[in-house]
Amino acid sequence: MPATDLLRLSYYGFTAASVAVLAAVVFYVMDALWLARTSRLVTAGDALASWRAYATPPTPSGRLASTTVALATLFAGLAVALRALATGRGPYSDMYEFSVAFVFVALLGYFLLERNYGIRPIGVIALPVILGMVAYVWSLPPSVREDRGLIPALSNNVIMTAHVSSAVIAYAAFALSFAAAVLYLVVARWPRAWLPSAELLDEVAFRAVTIGFPAQLLLLILGSVWAHMAWGGYWSWDPKETAALFTWMVYGGYLHARTLRGWRGTRSAAYLVVAFLAVVFTYFGNYWFGGLHAYSGV
Is the pTM of the predicted complex or chain greater than 0.85? Predict the structure, then answer.
């Protein structure tokens, strides 16, 4: 199949994923409102005793929400795979391709999180974050949907794919930790039987960071190797690489405080909410500060 046709199919796949993500946000809000109608307060003891066996009660809107997330994940995955086939490389040449890949990995991570932990209410927070990224992708100029390739200095498919894949995994994991932390702060002030316990959300947020933190480190290491191969230096204090290092240190501070200082509860969740601002700045900082990571135009 010609590359132009594969690119067109990739675009259609992302369009379908976008519609599914929007529908999922609506269904998750409906699900939360439905469950809230019959909610009751729970004691901290009850929550602690049952958090490992927690599962959100099923509702019609909840089933629709979970189904549409599965469809969105499938369509986004097809969009990424078809673009990779069309370009003959990892689809990471610019912010358009990178953001489409982020949408897919974030959806996949959320899908696995809901499937393994049964905490559907977290979708009320996680899916709007993903929808925001979908909206950003659609805000980009249509010309970025074409394959514009890479400049010669950066044409290393293996390292590029590994380097940017690490970034996608790290940022998606940090986004899920942010969602869990926000819901933790809600549950801490407004505990209800249909909401997951604060203890479970604290655990989910921590596990998400334990995935994102080493992925962020791998991003930095591979980026340094790639920079040496392309420009002859391992580190240049480029704005985006500096922001990525700062983000890694911020989440390293969280892990240090949790494992060695015993941080739990509200202050730990609040830290993760603020820490996500570093991720957002790292993601979009090249728009304002330029640097080597602005080579793609967007």
Answer: yes
